[in-house]
């Protein structure tokens, strides 16, 4: 008998708990990474030297690649995204 059965959880409670646990430990992300589904997220952060100025960032979802850099314009970040996906992941997407 499992711990969940001992607590008297209903089937709905057990399914909800198992779904949350899977996402929390990152198994879905690991499976996507293993399948070669990397992506680069483009976003904005405050410039650490001038907090009223924003910089654009490009960050690969593969943890070993991480932050690709900071850029003055969104266009520059998007170019870095496309280059990284092509060179590091062999994906020639034009997004």
Supply database-style keywords.
alpha+beta; 95 residues; 4 helices; single chain; 45% helix; 3-stranded antiparallel beta sheet
Approximately what portion of the residues adopt beta-strand conformation?
25-35%
How many beta-strand segments?
3
Characterize the main sheet. Answer: 3 strands, antiparallel
> Helical residue percent?
40-55%
Radius of gyration: 20 Å
Q: Report the end-to-end length measured between terminal Cα atoms.
A: 51 Å
The number of distinct helices, counting runs of at least 4 residues, comes to: 4
What would you call the shape?
elongated
* Uncertain segments: 1-5, 9-29
| SSE string, helices as H and strands as E | HHHEEEH
Q: Give me the secondary-structure category.
A: alpha+beta
Number of domains: 2
Mean pLDDT: 73
Give me the side-by-side strand order of the main sheet: 1-2-3
């Amino acid at each position: 008998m499992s711990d969940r059965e001992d607590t008297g959880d209903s089937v709905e409670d057990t399914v909800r708990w198992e779904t949350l646990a899977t996402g929390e430990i990152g198994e879905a992300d690991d499976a996507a990474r293993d399948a070669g589904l990397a992506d680069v997220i483009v976003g904005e952060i405050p410039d650490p030297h001038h907090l009223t100025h924003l910089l654009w960032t490009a960050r690969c979802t593969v943890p070993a690649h991480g932050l690709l850099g900071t850029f003055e314009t969104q266009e520059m970040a998007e170019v870095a995204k496309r280059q990284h996906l092509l060179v590091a992941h062999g994906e020639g997407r034009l997004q």
